[in-house]
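Work Package 3 (structural annotation) set out to generate three-dimensional models for the target panel prioritized at the project kickoff. During this period the team completed the workflow that converts sequence records into discrete structure tokens, so that structures can be stored uniformly alongside our sequence database. As a representative example, we reproduce one entry of 258 residues exactly as it appears in the project archive.
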Amino acid sequence: MTRKEFRLPLVATALLGTLLVATQAQAKPGPQPPHELHVQAQSTLNVAPDMARLNARLWERTPAVAQSEAGNDAQALGDARERLESRTGDLIDALEDAGVESRDIQAGSLNVRPEIMIQPQGDDDAERRVRTQVERPVSVTIRDLEHLPRILDALTAAGVDALDGVEYDLADRDAASDKALTQALERARQKARLMADTLEVKLGRVVRVEETQAPDYTPRPMMMRAESADAKAAPQYRAGEIGIDAGVSVTWAIEDGS
């Protein structure tokens, strides 16, 4: 038998093996992507605030002098600072008498800045006059909102020069944020079950979950109103509620019903 006669069966066998492999590959399709149900949910948790913060400022000023003499008012500046420190001490005492603990009162650092007085009209040739303002901020944390009216009365009686605002807040922000997130997840599950029932499919396990909006909120500014037309009537303070928004995105696998 010649060499050529041996080669023909080998070629035929190789071709047959290739066809068998190709047939088996077609008979075993690759893994199919899982059927999924994707849900997004938002929720808002409304919580009554249980604390507040306020910021006030006290200041004193030196007498106005000509700008050329501004560097010679050390005595006037010292007197202004002494008056300011005395008033700040009186304010702290009044706040403590109103029920605020000392740890909740923060008297900020002294701020000193010059002020240029406005020139009278038609007096452009006159030398500019300046004065110096010394100022201290005072921050108060109010842990019992029932004390708020007394604290504001104490600030007024102490003659604060500016009340920059009162904001309602939550003592335990983390607990409220966790509850808002839980509420969003429960809303997502409720929506997924409703969709699955309507489409007559069966939910499987959760395959993906993520936050689309982290629970967050902004402290609420104080709302104040008088309950009667009497100008001497005590104002009433309304804390309202703080809204905490949260959002989630959840994907469930849909189980094969076969």
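The radius of gyration is 38 Å.
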